[in-house]
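FORM 7B: Structural annotation worksheet

SECTION A. Query
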Amino acid sequence: MSAVTVREARAGDVPRIAALIAMGNASRPMTAVEAEAEGRLPVYAEAFARVAASEANHLFVAEEDGRVVGTYQLTVLPGIAERGRTRGKIESVHVDPTLRGSGIGAVMMRHALETARQLGIGLIELSSNKSRTDAHRFYERLGFSKSHEGFKMVLD
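SECTION B. Predicted structure
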């Protein structure tokens, strides 16, 4: 494996980020060809613009040999609980399916935790689809614990 680096995502990364997410969709994973077409939809550029405009949201990509091979989002959540401790949420963690198990996820998670500390985050949360049992074992090996049950509701 070549050196993997992590950096802030740029607008030009959006089609690849969307394709990685589509290929990793737990309920309906897409083929690489389907995912590349999905990534070109304008909704992703619009979503990226909203994320980029938010001081609380940080979208990152992992690169290997100049190619985007992974992505994740870190959101800063100030709050009152835990004596006002700032929380961070890591979500939408995706690695190219052909490269899973090669250490890219570990590089991204080290980056996420270091970035969280730099942003003053004192507690980090991570969400992962219940069907991703391999990912859950990976997160537990990194020190995350299954401390809460999560819920979602689609509103649109």
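SECTION C. Observations
The chain has six helices and five strands. The CA atoms of residues 78 and 107 lie 26 Å apart.

SECTION D. Sign-off
Analyst initials: ____
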